[in-house]
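Help needed: design a sequence for this.
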């Protein structure tokens, strides 16, 4: 009973998380369903810290000091349920199970409630940063009770990435809050990548630049407002020439895959009634890319004979990318706000921006601006209303419009840029055509409408004398 914490599930993520914990001086118990992975870590890394390998779950649990803490890093879904059950059966009231996998937040809510009944703490912790992050400092988004965070928090904070001396880990909120925020983080990651891909595609098609020349443009952009890990690695990928001497990006099959967290984000946004168009367009663009039969069938459809106008497209695209990114993040934070209200999580949005500054895939200078915006006004109804972002949008909007119209004229799809601009213009409008939609709904379904000049709801007798009466 000497291990401070245990990790069960020692594939890529679990192995590196266990090593990270050991590097920070914790005694780490190790377990994996197939023992070969446990043995492999002992063979490769036992000199890095104090590990206690276990060949069975019972031995693993027995090696943990009390109250016990075990992190699960296995495949999300039924595998996680199976491992939780195995662990819970061996644990005692007051012990803690942490799920660091990519669980759906609804599963986490269910598991937390069930384990609480058995006297066990359950913490669903979103962990971002992939293989490298898990080893050297991820961004960690733990949910669960305040009590469990009090015990677990210091340990997680010590192994998380640090930015300006601040750990990229904070207690997000009760039950599924951590996994929810991790899910939205992944959705935002989808939209970031989609916008980068559109910028690349448009510049390449419109200006005929080579991947290497485009890499240089992204490198340049990485010195300004867009500075981020994803922009940095975009330059790396574009610059890479494979063994056959071709730019790698030209030989990779152009069908983007997905593991599902983007889709979860959009499904949840539909349930919550939050327009996350940036993330949704990104998920759908990947889906479109994955239908080669439809793409082949559509190949001969007519395209435009327009040419790219002769203006400073590179700078315009940079501005359009930045503006669209602001929209996508604003929408993602709206989704967090809505869920926080729906589930009573009381999430501090500024703190989420703070813990995404390091360790994770969307890490960027930009997140500091979001943190500042919520610090200045914790009740901010939309990030677009923050003076700094409003100014950035003002500066970008003419360029953004030129980019969207150029893309349409030369036939390059930019669903991210275009829908972000439509969202911006939609929110800006004093009156929306939603009034007409309400009129139509009242006409065919007597769904009623409200008026701008009187309180109450009304119905017009469309099939009769068309007089209006209170509904
Ligand atoms: P995988 O998702 O590939 O899962 C493999 C691990 O799960 C192995 O240890 C495997 O054990 C174990 N496992 C699978 N089924 C069972 C079962 N029924 N009972 C017990 N153990 C089982 O591993 P990763 O390291 O890639 O990811 C772990 C978790 O972290 C996942 O939830 C993933 O979504 C999440 N995650 C992954 C990231 C990444 O970059 N890879 C980033 C952030 C989160 P065995 O060796 O015996 O087969």
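Sure. Designed sequence:
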């Amino acid at each position: 009973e000497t291990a401070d914490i245990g990790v069960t599930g020692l594939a890529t993520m679990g192995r590196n998380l266990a090593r990270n914990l050991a590097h920070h001086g914790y005694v780490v118990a190790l377990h994996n369903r197939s023992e070969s992975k446990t043995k492999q870590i002992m063979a490769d890394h036992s000199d890095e810290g104090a590990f206690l390998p276990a060949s069975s779950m019972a031995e693993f649990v027995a090696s943990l000091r009390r109250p016990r803490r075990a992190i699960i890093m296995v495949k999300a879904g039924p595998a996680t349920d199976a491992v939780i059950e195995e662990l819970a059966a061996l644990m005692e009231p007051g012990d803690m199970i942490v799920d660091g996998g990519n669980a759906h937040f609804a599963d986490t809510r269910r598991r937390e409630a069930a384990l609480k009944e058995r006297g066990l703490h359950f913490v669903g912790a979103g962990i971002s940063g992939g293989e490298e992050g898990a080893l050297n400092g991820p961004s960690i988004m733990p949910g669960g009770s305040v009590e469990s965070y009090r015990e677990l928090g210091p340990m997680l904070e010590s192994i998380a990435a640090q930015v300006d001396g601040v750990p990229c880990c904070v207690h997000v909120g009760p039950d599924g809050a951590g996994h929810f925020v991790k899910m939205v983080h992944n959705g935002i990651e989808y939209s970031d990548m989609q916008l980068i891909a559109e910028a690349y595609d448009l510049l390449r098609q419109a200006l005929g630049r080579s991947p290497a020349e485009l890499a240089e443009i992204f490198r340049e952009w990485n010195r300004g407002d867009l500075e981020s890990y994803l922009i940095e690695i975009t330059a790396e990928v574009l610059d890479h020439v494979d063994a056959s001497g071709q730019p790698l990006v030209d030989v990779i099959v152009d069908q983007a895959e997905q593991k599902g967290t983007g889709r979860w984000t959009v499904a949840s946004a539909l349930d919550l009634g939050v327009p996350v168009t940036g993330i949704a367009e990104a998920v759908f663009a990947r889906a479109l890319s994955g239908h080669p039969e439809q793409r082949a069938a559509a190949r001969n459809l007519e395209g435009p004979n327009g040419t790219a106008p002769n203006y400073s497209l590179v700078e315009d695209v940079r501005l359009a990318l930045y503006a669209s990114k602001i929209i996508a993040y604003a929408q993602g934070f709206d989704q967090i706000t809505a869920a926080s209200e729906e589930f009573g999580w009381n999430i501090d949005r500024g703190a989420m921006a703070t813990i995404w500054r390091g360790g994770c895939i969307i890490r960027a200078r930009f997140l500091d601006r979001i943190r500042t915006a919520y610090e200045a006004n914790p009740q901010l109804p939309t990030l677009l209303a923050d003076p700094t972002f409003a100014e950035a949008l003002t500066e970008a909007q003419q360029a953004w419009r030129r980019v969207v119209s150029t893309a349409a004229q030369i036939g390059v799809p930019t669903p991210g840029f275009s829908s972000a601009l439509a969202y911006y213009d939609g929110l800006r409008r004093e009156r929306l055509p939603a009034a007409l939609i309400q009129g139509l709904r009242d006409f065919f379904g007597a769904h009623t409408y409200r008026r701008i000049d009187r309180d109450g709801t009304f119905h017009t007798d469309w099939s009769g004398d068309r007089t209006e009466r209170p509904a």
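The CA atoms of residues 84 and 157 lie 24 Å apart.
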